[in-house]
Structure formats: C-alpha cells, structure tokens
Design goal:
The structure is a homodimer.
Chain A lengths: L5 E6 L3 H12 L1 H8 L3 E7 L14 E3 L2 H7 L4 E4 L6 H12 L3 E4 L2 H18 L3 E2 L10 H8 L5 E7 L2 H13 L3 H11 L7 H4 L2 H15 L9 E2 L7 H10 L1 E12 L2 E12 L11 E8 L3 E8 L3 H16 L26 E11 L4 H11 L4 E5 L8 E8 L2 E2 H12 L9 E5 L2
Helix pairs in contact in A: 1-12, 3-4, 4-5, 5-10, 7-8, 13-14
Chain lengths: 429, 429
C-alpha cells in the first residue's frame, strides 16, 4: 500500500521560496520514488501573487503566514520569510504549536531563538530542520548531525558569506580597493544596498553560532561571538598576503577546548597550500575537524535560489522519509552551557601592517614594543623606500596571545613614527 | 521510557574493524545521547584474538563470521572483512537473511553484488549501509542519497584512491619518477605490497560504480567502467602539467547524459584554479554536480583506521535513529538500466606527450596526422633541443572525440621520427 503524500505549506515566495516551489514541482517524480511517497505542496503564503513566474493555482492561498501555519492542510510548514522576529518567528511558533514539522532557511531566527524553538519542536514530537540556514546548498548540518555522530568535534570553521568572499576574491584578482569592489558587487546584485549585515560579519556570526551548537552539543550563544568584518581590508593587505603565501578570507571559527568555547568571525590569512584558500568568489566552504574522521571540507554555493532550495527540499525529503532528529544533535535539555573563552586568550599568529615614516631607527622602536609584550616576530617586509615619508611595513609574528598582540599594537600606535592605526589580521593554520 | 539498546556484531577486527570497536567504545555516551538509545557491541568475529590492542572481553566471540551473522544476538551486522566473494559475501547474505541490518566498508562486495544484496535487504525490511566503502570518512553517500534528494544529478567525480593521490603528489613535490615513489610508499605503508588494485584504478572503479548507482538511480555496472591507472605517468608529464596550468589526478568520473551513462577512471589534467587540483597526498575528494545545487565538493581522508570507522559508525547511528532508506536512493526494482556510452564517443581535450627526433620537418608530420583526424591543436611545447636525438614534445588539443584522438595517435605512432609510444592524458574542466 503506497504511503500517503507528505503535504507541504510554503511561506514566503521570494527567491528561495520560489526556488523551493520550482524544485518540488520539477522533481516531483524523482522525489516520490526516493521517498516512497509523493511530496505535494498544498498551500502557499506571501504578500502578493503578482509576478511569481510559477504556477500556484493548485495551492491554497494565504496572505497571512501565521494563519497558514495554524490552519493549512499541511504536515510541514516551510518558513522562507526571513528575519529573527515578526511574522517569521510568529509563524514558526504557530506551526510547531499546531504539531507541524518546520523547515526554515532563516539563520537569524535559529541563531536567536533556536533553543526555545527546538524545545517546542521536541515537546510536539516534530522536526525543526534548517540545513539551508548555514552555507546554502552544502549539507553541513546533516554531515555533522548524522554522518559524524561517532566523533567528538574539535573545530568547525568556514567561509560562510558569499558576498564577502566575492569581494575579497575580486579585490585580489583585479587589484582594486574595497569600496570600488563593493560598489560593483552591489551593481551586480551580489551585495545588498545595505551591505553591513554581510560585510560586518553578522551573517557569518549567525551561521557560526548555529554550527557551534550542533557541532559541540552546546546551547546557542550568538551574543558571545567575536565579530569583525572586512571593511578595513585593503588591496595592499591582499598583495602582501599573496607575497607571504596566504589568501585573506572572512572565516567563522568555533572550537571547544579545555571546557571553554571560542567563537570568532574575522578576516583571516589562510595558507595558500590549504584547499580553503582556493575557495573563491561566491562559493562557501565549511571545514569540520573531528577526533576520528580528522578533517572534512565541504565546498559549494552558499546562497542563490536553487542551491538554497536544494537544501530546503533535502530537509523536506528527510521528513517524508521519517528521519527525525534532535534539532542540535542532542535533545534541548542535554545541550551544555559552556563558558566563552575571552578573545584575549586566543592564541595565534598575526599579520600586522604599519604605516611608518621611512627614517633611521624607526623599526627599532617597533621591534622594542613587540619585545616588551612578548611578541616574537617571524618576518618583516618593507618594499618601498621614501625617506621621510610614510611607507607600508608588514610583519608577521609567531604564535602569541591576543592580549599580548593588542598591547603591543597599542604601544606601536603611540610611536611618533607611526602615521596610521596599525592593521592586524589573524593567521590561521 | 528509554529505547532499547541497538546491538551490533562486528566481523573483522583488522584496521577498520578495530577502529570501529574503539570508536563505539570511546564515544558510547555521546552516541547514546545523539541516538536517544545506547549502541552496544554484543559480538565480534575474527580469525584470531591475538594482539588486538582493545578489550573484547564483554562480547560474544565467533571465529566464524557466517555463524555470527546467523546466530549472534545483534540487530546490526558490520562486515569489515573485505573481498567481493568468500566469507564477506556469505556473511552479509546470512545476516540479511536473518533479518539483520548490514553495515559494510566493502567496496568490492557492493560494486559486484550490490544490486542482489539491496533486493535481499529490501525483502527483509532492513538497511544495507556502505558509506565507508566510498571515500572513507567523507559523507558522500549520505549527501547524495539524502541531502541532494531534490536534485537530478548530472555528474559525480572524484579523487577516491589515497595511494594514487599520494604517489602523484609526491612525484610532483619531489620531482621523482613513479617507480621510486611507489617503492617509498610501500615502505611507508601507504601502498600495498601488491599495489595493482590501487594503481591500476580498480579500487577507484569499484567506488565509482557505487557512486554512479546511487547518484543516477541506475543499476550497478562495474564491468563497463573504463579503467586506466597511473603506471605510465612520468615525472616529465607532471612537470609539463604544472607548466600548462594543470595538476595530474587519478579521477573517477561518471555522468548521465542523453540516455547514456559514462563511467571512466583515468589520470586527468585538472586545472590549477580548480579546488580539486589542491587535494593532495592521501586526501580524497568527491565533486557532485546537481541541476539545483550546482556543485558540491567534499574533501577528507579516504582511508585509515579512524576516518573509515567514523563512516561505519555514522551508518550504525543512522540505524539506531531509525533512518532506513533504499540502498541506492530508490528501491532496487526502480533502478534503471542505462546503456554505457562507448568511450570512443567521449568528448574532451587531451594532453599528448611525444618523443620526437629533433630534425627539420618532423613536427609537420605530427600536425598533418592531427589535421587528418580532425584534432585541433591548442598548444605545443618543445623545450629541449638535441639535433638528431629524441626530445620530448608536448601538445594539448581543443575538444575532440576519443575516437579521433586515438586514430590520430595511431597515425602519429607510425611516423619514423616518433621514437616511443605516444602518451595521452585527458584534460577535464
């Protein structure tokens, strides 16, 4: 006897919502064969029916997503509205309360309210799936939650914002500065009119907080993510990086060690011999380090209509197949509360770019400031010579603590021969 | 009420079997939390108890894996013996017949008998999981079978043999020839005493045949995989590849197009700007192209005790969580039988290395042979000059058919000025 169809209601018919409708429509036969039952859309909700570009005539129409979440004839409520509050949150809560499974691509919602929502889903015996919220089409949540269930994970890190990676890649390839490339990216539709959410690292931080919870079985803690964006990266930094054997990427990095958790988002010098360095343009990548599997890297499109819809549909087919798992790997009441390591305790190597007056003895003052704060220099480059004028000087350090590095930079910034605020980029791996 | 423990019997206590025992022992608490039930080993089978290095005193002992498959107090039978016939096959059949789930890392078994075994598993309502059989710790089967269920896949390709990738990487890094590096790899334990299974591409072909079936929903067809190994790759080829902007990798590539299937394993020139080119040493990688997700690449350790055990345990935790799927994405009777495209119809670009007598007019004969077979040259390099002596000459072609390329090479091989059999390497992407 064939199983009953899985009924799906989709809220939000923008880029990802439209993509999800199309993927479910275009792949209906394959999906039915793979799931052993049809997956059918029964209802859709959006602000307007105008200009959709696909056929929704067979579906119940709602202009109120919360009403659809409560009333629709659906097993699964798919939230593709966006935003951590407002309609998206209200609709997801209503759907869970009504005993429906929820699939969402909403990283802000999960990063801010994931724990409460996972409790609610558990209490109702339904799934809350969010593969599309992190790194788009890359199946990183499934990989962590299922495939690597035999591992204690040590670190997760990734390039999780395509806008930033596109900007950094284009700056390098074209030798252009940040502002120019951002403007071009906006014109091409790769960056939002208000790009701060992406370029200041908030989007990456949302995704990292989610990854951290599922990877380490800890409570979501978005507010303690250390976040720096890419606005201060210059074409000069990118050139020096290449010369030193690195490429600059905006990384989100989370690690669990000695009973503390580190979550940080910042521009990072990645060694050129690392595959991560070669993830370019709008592509995303996530690297997972487990105690058994060692390292697994996954690369793919982190955004866009179809790749994101692919992840949403993967979550739906899991439900169709009866796959139901705790939201963050373990039940919500087993998630640990782990203290955040102070960023000052971070240990790593650093790249520093100074603007120094080109005059005798000036570098001795810099070297002394480093020495006074126990920072050991690994290399120094001064290419330009312009006696009496400011020239860029770049140095890299051996491993030290963030506290020492910051103290050294504060001291260096106060030197008379230093003409601009020193720039620092962390080196990874 | 807590769920009952999942009981596991493990056959084969070599590298991967031992790793699986250790992973299940060391991660018992985490696995129980993640699965909502304990996963316990109840029985083990091997040829000898000697020198295991881990404690099996709590488990029922069998020196006959088939007897264990029939009689053990176990829900899951884990086959880590190896080989496509003999005990491994008999034990897996016995376990399935006894209504037990089966987890295996045995690519030869699945490549040769996967279809019959999947029918048997289905008829008994149990799972047959084999994530560890392809690319070790990389969760590629789960990604294809579950995460990408909303896609029609177009192509899967990968570096799936760590021995070959280690040899090719070391040849490049050290500038050494194949025989020397193979010998070193054997001394280091990275290559078997009889390395033919790896270096002649058979191991990759097993994995590719499995990937092909699960990716395209087609019947396994190992015998029609076109297989070439890496024995004929020379240090000179690797140097020229680098100069031309490529790196040589042993790839398995499968694609479904126009109602035919292409499955081929051969050394391939991969462009340096592709992330695949930077997967080095013993690492494996699989690239999946879907019509919705676009491209997803996964990189990780394709072999070794712990990474492979990680994949085996992932398959076991899936069973503990009640995840049960058709072996090759769709039920066995829905797998399509798709004709294999003749390799002569393959279309691609080619690298050709000739040994030519350095004398006037000799290259004109080569160019004429290419022209006569509709092969269009893209570049030519002749570095050395030794009038009257053989020198290496390398050329690359634009896209052409394999049939044309082979006919051109046959004609070239017959020229008096050609002193060795021409070498050909396909260029991808």
């Amino acid at each position: 006897m064939p199983k009953e169809a899985l009924k799906v209601a989709i809220a939000g018919l923008g880029t990802v919502g439209g993509g999800t409708v199309k993927v479910l429509q275009n792949h209906a036969d394959e999906i039915a064969a793979r799931c052993g039952r049809p997956v059918v859309i029964t209802a859709v909700a959006a602000l307007s029916k105008e200009g959709l570009g696909f056929d929704i005539s067979g579906y119940a129409w709602y202009d109120d997503a919360v009403a659809m979440a409560k009333d629709a004839d659906a097993d699964v409520f798919v939230e593709l509205i966006g935003g951590s509050e407002g309609v998206a949150r209200a609709a997801v809560e209503a759907a869970l309360n009504a005993g429906r499974h929820v699939v969402t691509a909403n990283k802000a919602l999960i990063a801010h309210h994931g724990k409460a929502l996972s409790r609610l889903a558990e209490s109702k015996g339904v799934s809350l799936n969010y593969e599309a919220a992190v790194a788009g089409g890359i199946p990183v949540i499934k990989s962590i939650r299922e495939a690597l269930a035999g591992n204690t994970l040590k670190r997760v890190q990734g390039i999780m914002n395509g806008t930033c990676n596109y900007i950094l890649t284009t700056m390098r390839e074209e030798g252009l500065d940040f502002d120019k490339v951002l403007k071009d990216a906006q014109d091409l539709g790769y960056a939002e009119a208000d790009p701060s959410f992406d370029i200041d690292g908030v989007d990456t931080a949302h995704k990292l907080a989610i990854l951290t919870s599922v990877a380490f079985g800890v409570e979501l803690n978005f507010k303690d993510v250390h976040v720096e964006g890419i606005r201060h990266i210059s074409a000069v930094d990118i050139q020096f990086a290449e010369e030193l054997g690195y490429r600059i990427k905006l990384l989100g990095v989370a690690s669990r060690e000695n009973g503390t958790l580190e979550q940080r988002v910042h521009p990072t010098m990645v060694p050129l011999d690392s595959p991560l360095a070669h993830v370019e343009g709008v592509f995303n990548a996530v690297v997972i380090d487990g105690d058994e599997v060692d390292t697994v890297m996954q690369v793919g499109r982190g955004a866009g209509e179809r790749p994101t819809a692919s992840a949403v549909v993967g979550d739906i087919t899991d439900i169709a197949r009866g796959i139901s798992l705790p939201t963050f790997s373990v039940p919500a009441d087993k998630l640990e509360s782990v203290p955040t390591r102070d960023m000052n305790e971070h240990v790593g190597a650093y790249y520093v770019r100074l603007s120094l007056l080109d005059q005798p003895g000036v570098f001795a003052d810099v070297a002394a400031a480093l020495r006074d704060h126990q920072v050991s220099m690994e290399s120094m480059i001064q290419r330009a010579r312009e006696p009496g004028e400011p020239v860029p000087v770049v140095l890299t350090t051996h491993e030290t603590t963030e506290a020492n590095m910051r103290a050294a930079l504060d001291a260096i910034a106060k030197l008379d021969s230093v003409t601009e605020k020193p720039r620092m980029i962390r080196i990874e791996g």
